Give the backbone structure.
Amino acid sequence: MADAKLVNRTKLISSLDNKLVEPFNMLSQKTRVPKSRLIDEAIEDLLKKYEKRMAE
């Protein structure tokens, strides 16, 4: 079977600190928010945090 075509997303491969895996899984389950959306939110927050530094 062929891979699904991603139109509005880019596949990213990464790893996560072991101590973050279970809390992350629980957050996704309890909020019913997909992990990919939670990661999007985290990256957006991180980019805002470093916005001024990146502009220099």
User: Anything to note?
Assistant: Residues 19-55 form one domain. The chain has a mean pLDDT of 92. The two ends are 46 Å apart (CA to CA).
